[in-house]
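Input sequence (427 aa), recorded before submission:
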Amino acid sequence: MASCAQISNLLQAWIDEELSHGERVILEQHLAECPGCRVVARKHQRVAALLFESFGGNRLKHDLAPAIIENLPPMEPLRINVKPEMGRREVKPERTLALTHVIPAVAAMVLCVVGVVLYLNWPPEPQRAEGAVGVVTWCGGEVNQGSGPVRPFSRAYTSNYVRLGQKFQTGPKSNLMLSLRGPTLLKANEKTRLSVTDDRAVQLEEGQVWLRVAKENRQFKVYTPAGEVTVLGTVFDVIVTGSKAVITVVEGVVQVSNGISKVRVDSGEQVEMVAGHEIEPTRVLAAEEVTRWAETIQPDTQADAVFTETVQMRGTEELQAEQVFVVITNQANGDGVVSSFELAWEPNAGNSPHCGYFIHVYNDKMEELFSNHVQGELFEKGGRSSVTIPVPGKPISGVNVIHIKLVPDFTTGNAKTSFSRISAMGI
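Predicted structure, token format:
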């Protein structure tokens, strides 16, 4: 199977009808299966047609070959001396016989080595777009990807589709760019580990990312070991080192929270948060200097076309993602004080690894009160069908209606849980 890069090199010759029959068959079969290459091929054809029409009046009306041949200078006939040079030693028959045995063996070994190298480095076959939430639009250096808790990491390529639960990691002096539905552009610096938990959420374990999030009705979240970042539409940078996260905002506004406190960060400001501690006040700085590293990372033209044609514009299959429950607190207890929530579900008999869930709790004005996370392995225990989610800090009071949103985290598995109810528990 030819790679997209190989096909791209043949497109102009295909348009000019200069390919052999075999090359044309391989290229046309690839175009039938690869939407990204079809987009690039159509662009080549449009450019060729535009050039043909633009320079039509300047085309030659006759062949120049006869005139060129007629004006070539006379050439002396080539003479080859086939006589052996004096003093050259004749090759002994036994040496010739030995070489005839050695050369085929060496050639076979070279072919085997070349075959192994090609097998290990050959790009994967084109993927299908169904269920994709984005596309890898740039890879530079050592970039690997994996899916789920058991699948090993493999090399990432531009134009690969991004699916829920996909994990990525960049090596030294390497970088990555993902285009997610929205659209959201994510650039990862070297030595970064992240996973795509939703088309509007990523989890940053270590390293540095730059994001440009388009405005949409749904919030976009970046989860870190130190807390989470919530945005609707903005440009910002996040650096995670251990249990510390540093957030820098270039455009727009973000909110950072860690269950203890929350802080609003405006354009040109930076904030630092550490797990288990109050978030420090924001500080003003030159945000463009912090994010300058991301300027050199630009999307590959072909991969960007794949994203636009197959993910962003046309969309993919509808994703059954978040679930929302509404709890009327004054029916649970007289004074409307809530100290915890009980989350119940129908036991699942399947053996597939379960996804975890991010739990977001909002008041009646849709202001987020707190968030939590439940590991997927909890739903795999056959004898368990509920879990208690405590309210961090002070109990919730004075709120009659509470909205609870459950967002799947596909980094641990793909099997979803069927939730039956959420109840508010008083003191």
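Checked by second reader. The chain is about 25% helix and 35% strand.
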